[in-house]
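Before a colleague's protein record goes any further, I have to sign it off. What it holds is a sequence and that sequence's fold in token form. My question to you is simply how this chain folds and whether the tokens agree. Thanks in advance; the entry in question is below:
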Amino acid sequence: MTDSHTPPSGSARLNTGVAHNARVWNYWIGGKDNYEVDQQVGRHVADMFPIIRDIARADREFLGRAVSHLAGERGVRQFLDIGTGLPTADNTHEIAQRIAPDSRIVYVDNDPIVLAHARTLLTGTSDGATAYIDADVHDPDAIIERAGHTLDLTRPVAVMMLGILNFVLDTEKARDIVRRVMAAVPSGSFLVLTHPTFDDELGGAGQIPAMKFWNENATPPITARSGTDIAAFLEGLDLLDPGMVSCGQWRAEPDAAVLVPQYGAVAVKP
């Protein structure tokens, strides 16, 4: 996989002295692409909020179910995965291209360690395409412009925003990002979303002190939101069943469903 737009200086941004979300998340799901500082912060957060590992796994499994549904039952052949994080098993392109080898996937992230791994691991099928762009969620216009080098934006696209809007601290700014991205894709496109919540009914109260510790000891800063605020990101879209629910319960098998304080939803642009 190549991307001529990636700046060669990306590695200069790598700071292994401060815990970073992509690497800590990798640690929580059992990966090896992390440093001691990431493990230390990850362990401390997990001690404060033990369900965090369950959230990480549930979010990853939600991705698998959502991509499988969209590629298999909805015929989606294009995916824009914003804030992809570190590659693990069953990434978006692997799931989609297993179902439809001609699927085209664009990954977006701005963490240099993600970039380094993406170049070697995120390779797609010869029939489809897999690309990576080094860009920030705060600049949706640049994301759309560069995604258009690989995706046909006149055809439906599944926009993946899993655990990324929680790094946009201003809620109205986050809403604007979603609106601008979804305005750039046609009718029949999808938004796939997960977001942490502090809602009590999902057991989210523990997010607040854990995120306070995170924001004092790691980067980038993060926020949880109420279900009401998260639902506002989906305004103007039609939710697929079962609606916005704990991501561990979205179309999960009854014996595998878990309640975690992370909402998940898939919605279609009418």
